[in-house]
Design goal:
Jelly Rolls; metal-binding; iron; 346 residues; 8-stranded mixed sheet; binds fe (ii) ion; alpha+beta; 10 helices; 17% strand; 14 strands; binds 2-oxoglutaric acid
């Protein structure tokens, strides 16, 4: 029987400087060891109604008529709707693409989307924009804490690199819908989201109580389910926000912060990995906020003694490191995930 992942739960709503330094330290240790952190949601940093409202909109969006969604089809700018099986996150191991639909929202300017929206949710444009802003602000706070915890000089180095006032970025709010598995055609390799690591700096993930499926690959190479409500959060007004380190931040910190591989499966009782109180037989909804630094940010190793002294396994001193910008890093990853789209164009 697989054990559930042991990911630390951290409350980042502390007010005093001393508490903040302690929280920053805990956050960095969790990022180094696990690459995943639960951020307790007591409603202080992130209003519970905003999360609930966004999930309601998500249901409306995915229930909208097909033509409405097709009119917003996914584009090379990483925005829009991707249909069932369109994305294949783990092409080597999947027979068919992911059992999911997704809708990516890029930046909003003065509350207005810079991409077509399905008519069914168009009147809620300002609500989506406000939710995106809440996510962005939470990411700035986490970036500040990571900077403090890593002793980066200046401590707001990461925060500055993410400021939208400094330019555009690849940041995306993604709504996800995973329908139940059609039992008649099911195959053991069917998967809701193939094994992958995220591309950006950090990801915020919102999930709904009772909906199983997310697993992380642990250092001993086994899959461990990630409960929506880990012990100690059951009575909070909302499940914690799950934060994970993406490839870009791992690259930027020379591998010190871990970008952990994860996937979304149909766990099923026969595989023995169901978290108590969670099920995979219902439709599943989740929301991810993929935070990226401003696109022109050069990803030279960050100015922190701890990071600069760190040597990832297998890397020798003085080995040249390719410095690319945040945008170049993202393009490299998108090309690998959406081969069919890019091969049409090349
Ligand atoms: O739906 C989830 O729980 C995770 C989704 C995910 O990992 C992703 O979209 O990158
Ligand atoms: Fe992911």
């Amino acid at each position: 029987m697989a054990k559930v992942a042991k990911i630390p739960v951290i409350d980042i709503s502390a007010d005093s400087d001393q508490d903040q330094r302690q929280v920053a330290k805990e956050l960095v240790e969790a990022a180094v060891e696990h690459g995943f952190i639960y951020i307790k949601n007591t409603g202080k940093d992130f209003p519970v109604e905003a999360v609930e409202g966004a999930f309601e909109l998500s249901k409306k969006l995915f229930n909208a008529p097909l033509e409405e969604k097709q009119a917003c089809t996914y584009q090379p700018n990483n925005r829009g709707w991707s249909a069932m099986h369109y994305e294949t996150l783990d092409p080597k191991n999947q027979r068919v693409g992911d059992f999911k639909e997704a809708f990516n929202f890029g930046e909003f300017i003065n509350g207005k989307a810079q991409q077509p929206l399905p008519a069914s949710i168009a009147s809620h444009e300002s609500q989506i924009s406000a939710f995106r802003d809440l996510c962005y602000n939470m990411c700035l706070k986490i970036n500040t804490l990571l900077g403090i915890g890593l002793g980066v000089n200046p401590p707001d180095f990461f925060t500055q690199a993410h400021l939208t006032t400094r330019g555009t970025s690849g940041t995306i709010l993604r709504l996800l819908y995973y329908p139940p598995l059609p039992q008649t055609t099911a195959s053991p390799t069917d998967i809701r989201a193939g094994a992958h690591s995220d591309y950006g700096s950090i990801t915020l993930l919102f999930r709904l109580k009772g909906q199983a499926g997310l697993e992380i690959l642990t250092p001993d190479n086994t899959w461990a389910p990630v409960p929506v409500c880990p012990p100690g959060t059951e009575n909070d007004p909302a499940p914690p926000i799950l934060v994970n380190i993406g490839d870009l931040l791992s690259y930027w910190t020379n591998g010190l912060l871990r970008s952990t591989v994860h996937r979304v499966v149909f766990p099923g009782p026969e595989k023995g990995v169901v978290v108590e109180g969670e099920t995979d037989t219902e439709p599943r909804y989740s929301m991810a906020f993929f935070c990226h630094p401003v696109g022109t940010t050069p990803l030279d190793v960050v100015p922190s003694e701890r990071v600069q002294k760190f040597r990832p396994e297998g890397q020798r001193d003085g080995e040249p490191r390719k410095v690319m910008t945040a945008d170049e890093h993202l393009q490299m990853r998108l090309r690998a995930s959406y081969k069919q789209m890019y091969s049409d164009k090349e």
